From TrEMBL:
Pfam families: 2OG-FeII_Oxy_3. Residues 112-215 form the Fe2OG dioxygenase domain. InterPro entries: Oxoglu/Fe-dep_dioxygenase_dom, Pro_4_hyd_alph_FE2OG_OXY. Transmembrane segments: none annotated. This is 2OG-Fe(II) oxygenase. It comes from Streptomyces ehimensis. Coiled coil: none annotated. It comes from the Bacteria.
Amino acid sequence: MAQGARNRLAKLLDGSEQRGDFSTRIEVPAQALRIEVDGVGELPLPLRAPVTRKLIAQARQARFGLGEQTLADTGVRDTWEITPDRITLGGHDWQRTLSSVLDGVRTALGLPPTTVLRAEPHALLVYGKGQFFLPHQDAEKDDSMVGTLVVSLPSYHTGGELVIEHASRSITYQASRERLTFAAFYADCRHEVKPVTSGYRITLIMNLLAERVRSAGEIDGGPVADLARCLTEHFAQPAEQRYSYDRPETTPPNRLVYLLDHEYTQRGLGWDRLKGADATRAALLRQAAGQAGCEAVLALAEVKETWDAVPPYDHYDYYGDVEHFNDCEDEECEGECLLDPDGEPGAERRRSGDFSDYELNDLIDDEIILGWWTRPDGTGGEQISLPVPYAEVCATTENRYLTPYQSEYEGYMGNYGNTLDRWYRRAAVVLWLRQRSFAARAEAGSGGALRELQGYLDAGELELARMLARSLAPIWKHHGSGAAAAPLFAAALRVAVGLGEADTAAMLLAPFGVEALSERHAPDLAEAAARYGRTWTRGTVGSCFGAVGARTGADRAAWLESLPGLCAALRTADGDGDAVATPLVEGAWQATEKQLTGWLGMSREPERHAGMERLGTALAHLLQAASPKTADTITTTLRGLPDTGLECLLQALRTAARRPVAVRDGTPAARAFQSLADHCEARLTADVARPVRAADDWSLAPAGTCRSGCGLCSDLDAFLTSRTRRVMDWPLAKDGRRHIHSCIDLANLPVSHTTRRQGRPYTLILAKTDAVFTREQAARARAETDLAWLREKWPRPRD
């Protein structure tokens, strides 16, 4: 079976000679280094307290990176820092000593002998008593950075150990008091500095940069021939399914994805910058690929695993009894909620943090997605999106033995739970047969496959291009989302135009959402419409609105803002751009009208107001992009909205007023906006003319939120519509109180609702608040302000 080939391949690579480890330590005599610091002068080694205190006087609080931010937090990193521009390194023997140390580091870390290491100063750090740095991972600050070199200057101190972890292993280094101590480790290793207990710990931090100086030859010996046989077997046998009840697969796998042990960034991933055992194994695989007729690339993978797991036994007894929590402040609770083992109310427990000591039982599920890979020709890399099936994955080191970058635990819930989710970032060697190269790259959303098709079209090999394009039909459906979608669309559109085959062209464009369309695509879109006709164009544009993708409200809002420019470019492009512009606007209007109906039915005013404002901005862009006929259709519908739709129309008018060039007199958009402005003015004038509420009128409109027509809501509406009743004491059981609470909250009524917990059933107390009057006053003031603005910005045209 194919799994046997993958298992043998993993074992062969596990048994191959591993060149090095993830860290190393070297000591040299202190006199090898002469170091000077601005404001202090030359540092006498070993360092004593008086000189160290002078260093601190010249230093600043050290900072650290968190995502895109640079922070200073002594709860995470408590140390003093001197920047490298204030440090001078020298000594008659320093360069020779450093060169020798770097050669030793290269060998100890298992980097190829063709690699030359350089050390670039990053900072001088001083740790006093009690100071530390919590576990963290260094950022790769340069494309060629592979690790960190910590040079500990000799000093008298205790504590301050450097602890380095990787793949469930941990190494602790203590600096020498008399000699220079060099500790080197790969950049993806988590490490920490333990608190200093006495004295001062002084270290020079240097970035390890790797440069390749000549081509690497083949690794001598090794199981290359055996690995090649494993690859041949893997690609020849049907892909094995994970579970016996899965339908048997009759076709061989398309790829082999071998997961490496270390973590890399896009900048740091290269055949000549792999770390430790990764370098050896990748080189062997690359040689075996050549013998087996395969191509090989490097990739970055996001891995998620879900385990059945339990906390350590001394944490808590998750099967133990639960207690009633009788002092809960939730007014819906009558002593029936549960107290979990940590003393928190509620049965649900969601925990996140360090779960390294949790016991893993069975792997429930896993997911691997390749998000970036290098090109086969070695010219850079590209974004992709490729889920990896079970039958294509292979690893010597299982994920469970690596450190996840994130974990979440769901505790026992009665009928499910005790699950631990773990996320990893791993690099991989991805291999496929050369004759399947086109499909293997295309399935990942690689722009290379489309470039290949375009190359055949440019060379006049139309039939070959059509045949290869048709072969994409089963695998092309999921490429319309993610970061790679926009550049893929441009390439797919050019190929679709060149193929001259309507069905294949539609298949290539079908996965892409409208968010991928922009003004720069207008010439090709207009040419495609002219080539394939209006029926094809309307169907293709319609599929763009229905395409499944990782769309967000922000994506659609940004696209709608660009729609007027896109439609203008389409209508002036050679070809039939109007055949694209019209269904684009109509499709956008259909989607917006559906949202508008939903927001009009929202009774909670704050949410409705925010949603209607967003739609108003979208409507402004739609009207600016619309043809005269479509603009009239939209305007007619908008003028028929109920009063609650005014906030949407006013926002559309405000958006249009900020772009007067787009709605200059005489355009369809200008006429549409003026029509809406006149409609809004008439509505607001009527609102302002209504009598002011009397001081003794406490009546409200019915809640209108209950869809079941229950008797409770009839009683509620009687209370609400009464002019004189302000308070209502209502004995109700728990379910009834909950229903009334929901109706009041959904309608956003100015009515407070509390529960008097005496007797059975408890009593629900409803009380109308002063917001009955203040809301109406605010609405009138807002209407007056909006009316004044309308008359200034959108005055009625004179006859």
